[in-house]
């Protein structure tokens, strides 16, 4: 049976750098963001539930979800955002668990890339959780550069998540991404060497 390593971080913390190392080594990745997009494809029950709750205005003429419209609705209203989370949560959880179970029988190591690992209590399904950590100033600087946004917007985005310092305290493993990309990659390779000599 495969070992499930959950990987999480914060916005602009460098999580994809870490996940890509595992991907390049050939380990299967269960990506929470991809699953979240798949469960709202046309014909899926989660999309029907969103349509029932938010109306036809969030559905494009093609039958696909109008992400922009839905985003506008939920970002202005925290009650609506919580409602959307409540609708999506069971579908998302079911699909993520199904994918992890599928890969667990096929690979010695499965990576579960879940942005809201602790917020959604996905840590209970993991054998170990790794947090990709950067300090607040570094995170803010990277986010401003990546998304071309001002300091205030960057801080608001970061503050909407559980602080990375808190996630770091909960983690089994920490990949410190304050240094260079090469240093971060080396930490991942060291972890692999200690746990999984392929």
TrEMBL record:
Residues that coordinate or bind ATP: 12-17
PROSITE patterns listed in its UniProt record: DPCK (PS51219)
Entry's Gene Ontology molecular function annotations: ATP binding; dephospho-CoA kinase activity
Reaction(s) this enzyme catalyzes, per UniProt: 3'-dephospho-CoA + ATP = ADP + CoA + H(+)
Keywords: ATP-binding, Coenzyme A biosynthesis, Cytoplasm, Kinase, Nucleotide-binding, Transferase
CDD domains attached to this UniProt entry: DPCK
Localisation: Cytoplasm
Known EC number: 2.7.1.24
Annotated InterPro entries: Depp_CoAkinase, P-loop_NTPase
Keyword Cytoplasm (UniProt): yes
Cited function: Catalyzes the phosphorylation of the 3'-hydroxyl group of dephosphocoenzyme A to form coenzyme A.
Name of the featured protein: Dephospho-CoA kinase
Annotated organism of origin: Enterococcus canintestini
Lineage summary: Bacteria, Bacillati, Bacillota, Bacilli, Lactobacillales
Primary gene name: coaE
